[in-house]
Amino acid sequence: MIRTPAYRTARAAVLFMLGAVHAAGAAFAGSLQVDPVRIDLSASEKTAAITLRNGGDEPIVVQIDALAWAQELGNDVYTPTQGLFVTPPIVTIPAGGEQLVRTALRSAPDASRESAFRIYFQEVPPPPKPGFRGLQVALRIGIPVFVQPAAGAAAPRPQWSAVRTGAGQIRLSVANEGNGHLKVGALALFAPGAEPALATEGLAYVLPGQRREWLIPVAAGAAPARVRLNASTNAGDLDTELPVGAP
Fold first, then answer.
1. pLDDT tens for residues 76-98?
2. Regarding predicted confidence, which is higher, 193 or 19?
3. Which of 15, 194, 238, 245 lies in the 20 to 30 Å Cα band around 127?
4. Superfamily of domain 2-147
5. Kind and range of the H or E element at 175?
6. How much is the pTM?
7. Picking from 16-20, 41-45, 136-140, which range would have the lowest pLDDT averaged per residue?
């Protein structure tokens, strides 16, 4: 079992990788490119294809793993799974070449709630060349896989709240009461009518039935009675005021 704090998820963007960016639906990490950056499966669409491309001038070896994705107490939890199959599990891609990887759902979708997995593509560094004294970095790309429930479409239902913690902070929370994941693309929290933002945050996922929290520092004794939340989510863009509750 692998646990990843949610704050690391927020800062790792869609890809959970080192030194990577994504554009036009493809993920880039060094010479490795992965397309698409998200997969959606269902009872009627149980398979998907992923294209790996090597944009470098040397061959690369990539190990591929599928993990079940859950969340507990604000942490991402990854565990080995038999529910999602990926083949081949390891590939060698020549310079300038590409490799097709296939993934397939092996277990039946949950009856009422979306399921989640991640597929990780780990570059295996070659043996260092004679005389090499630098640091070799193994790049890793992770893409989310969402499985629609058997009963129909999944959708998030976020419930936002803010409270003072008594320690010079505001705890901003969102509980996902829907049956599909919530994706928070970005958010900013303001004191009403004031600039700049008290805090800005990047990407975060909140799986069904889970909660995500952000601790926002404020000046001692200066927590406002209300805050304005601006957020971009897959449940719609949000620009609203929230009351700040007592500790």
1. 999 999 999 999 999 999 999 99
2. 193
3. 15
4. Immunoglobulins (2.60.40.10)
5. strand 169-176
6. 0.83
7. 16-20
Mention every residue, 6+ apart, whose C-beta is less than 8 A from residue 7: none
Instruction: Locate CATH 2.60.40.10 in the chain.
Output: 2-147
Reduced to 3 states (helix: H, G, I; strand: E, B; else coil), residue 9 is helix
Query: Which one, of 59, 2, 56, lies nearest residue 33 by Cα?
Result: 56
138: which 2 tokens? Answer: 């193994």
* Residues 161/242, Cβ–Cβ less than 8 Å: yes
**What is 117-153 written as a DSSP string?**
EEEEEEEEPPPPPTT--S-----EEEEEEEE--TTS-
198 close to 190: Cβ distance less than 8 angstroms: yes
